[in-house]
Design goal:
Radius of gyration: 29 Å
Largest sheet: 8 strands, antiparallel
Mean pLDDT: 92
Shape: globular
Number of strands: 23
Number of helices: 12
Low-confidence stretches: 207-212
Strand content: 25-35%
Number of domains: 2
Helix content: 10-25%
Structural class: alpha+beta
Length: 482
């Protein structure tokens, strides 16, 4: 009997030890990761996402542009619109951790000047994240677990405090927030994240009409969900040369405060925002002779596939209308618009990707359109633009044209314009907004150069137009007479 008990006990211990050994092997077994290489190499499994940062990128400036890939209804901001952008860089901490800092371009001084020391100690760049390196990493890189960087509520990749207050949002719901995808390419990495926030019900409207800032999803569910896409775009190692701002020329401008040892006072520096157009080496002499040359990298705008097909040719024409102006500046085929490729996914393209400029069509009752740009804060180099095109802008241009031009144009005497007339109105707004994305401000003084008698001279207007700048608000010739 004793022998039997001892045998059974020994067998149980062996089985237990074997099970523990298998469990240990299971825990120690490496988790298989899917891996893709690019600006930041990406590795992931079902649970975790990892980024590998090459040592060669330490200190390099990277622009992070975050957009709504999808937003909650009623917010007044739509899928495709920008949330924020920030210039970032990675650096190693003394303890070996990898730090992520935001480079705040606000002050500057020549490195060799003594005052540069005072500038440095008065402009410390904020550390927004710190990571303990993972053990497994490719040679010459640092691998970090990136879940917390995006699934949390870090402002540079999420909403700022003012927007959350406007939306009445509370804290982030970690169990309903997750990374959807990471796609990486040679000069950029794209991260798409679903974020869910608690919703603070506005006080005082129970049973009554919704108050400003009250979101339908929040009222119905108590939470608000949105999808954000962050583009990490590698900036040039050597920034493009700045072009200083002159108030007599209508460009948008960035700037900072300049300090130097030679000064007798602080100097504000302002530089314009502009695209980088460069001739190919073999075309430089042609350009000097005044011949038209094509730029190395032309400006290309894509039409959002959400755009109704009848309006796409007019949006494209509004972009292409700028070709004449670029030819006057010596450039051929410098700017154009194209429809979004049907095989965009196969080509590695997405509408939120900061490599591409897009006219985004927004399902909105707002009667407007706007033309922003994303630029390098060090130089003013425009990198891309997402024009916001609200569907209801057609109401605005309909009413403008009917009130201002119906006296001389019978086509305007209708509640519903023909596609041809509405298309022409869309074309002129498209051209105006593209002008903004090229860095141009409104030129509201241009119409003062055309006297009324010329505006009433049919032959003169047909040859010259009624205003000298599309960037003016002189939209229609309402002083023309039948």
């Amino acid at each position: 009997m004793k022998r039997t008990l001892l045998f059974l006990l020994s067998l149980a211990l062996c089985v237990s030890a074997s099970a523990q050994e298998k469990e240990k092997e299971k825990k120690e077994a490496p988790v298989k990761l899917e891996f893709s290489q690019g600006l930041f190499s990406v590795a992931h499994n079902e649970k975790d996402w990892f980024l590998e940062i090459p040592d060669t990128l330490l200190g390099r400036r990277i622009l992070a542009v975050t957009r709504f890939a999808a937003n909650t209804m009623g917010a007044g901001e739509y899928g495709g619109e920008e949330v924020n952008d920030a210039m970032l860089y990675w650096e190693k901490a003394p303890n070996g951790n990898l730090l992520l800092r935001v480079d705040v371009v606000n002050v500057e001084a020549p490195e060799a000047d003594a005052i540069a020391q005072a500038v440095r100690v008065s402009s410390e760049n904020p550390i927004v994240a710190s990571f303990k390196p993972e053990k497994e990493a490719s040679a010459g890189t640092t691998r970090i677990k990136a879940n917390s960087l995006f699934e949390g509520d870090l402002q540079v990749f999420s909403l700022n405090a003012a927007t959350k207050k406007q939306y009445n949002l509370g804290g982030i719901k970690a169990d309903a927030s997750f990374i959807g995808s990471m796609r990486t390419y040679p000069i950029n990495t794209e991260v798409t994240v679903t974020k869910t926030f608690a919703y603070n019900q506005p006080q005082g409207n129970q049973g009554g009409p919704a108050r400003s800032g009250s979101l339908p999803a929040g009222r119905e569910a108590g939470v608000v969900t949105m999808v954000l896409n962050t583009s990490f775009l590698l900036l040039p190692e050597v920034p493009m040369q700045q072009r200083w701002f002159d108030a007599r020329v209508g460009y948008f401008a960035g700037g900072y405060t300049h300090f130097s040892d030679d000064q007798q006072g602080v100097e504000p520096v302002r530089y314009i925002t502009r695209w980088r157009l460069e001739a190919r080496p073999e075309d430089v002499e042609k350009q000097k002779r005044g011949e038209l040359v094509e730029p190395v990298k032309p400006i290309v705008y894509y039409i959002d596939p959400a755009t109704p097909k009848r309006w796409r040719p007019y949006l494209i024409a509004g972009v292409n209308d700028w070709q004449v102006a670029f030819e006057q500046a010596g450039w051929k085929n410098a700017i154009r618009a194209e429809e979004w490729p049907e095989n965009a996914e196969e080509l590695g393209m997405s509408l939120e990707d900061a490599r591409f400029s897009v006219i985004r069509y927004l399902a909105s009752p707002i009667a407007n359109a706007y033309g922003p740009n994303v630029h390098d804060p060090r130089s003013g180099e425009i990198l891309e633009s997402h024009i916001g095109w609200y569907h209801n802008v057609m109401t605005l241009v309909h009413d403008w044209y009917q009130v201002q031009a119906a006296a001389v144009d019978p086509r305007a005497r209708s509640f519903r314009f023909s596609d041809e007339l509405m298309g022409d109105l869309i074309r002129f707004v498209s051209s105006h907004e593209v002008g903004h994305t090229l860095g141009l401000r409104h030129n509201k003084g241009s119409s003062s150069f055309t006297p009324v008698e010329k505006l009433r001279d049919k032959a003169w207007v047909e040859e010259n137009g009624h205003t000298v700048s599309i960037m003016d608000y002189a939209r229609f010739n309402y002083v023309a007479q039948p």
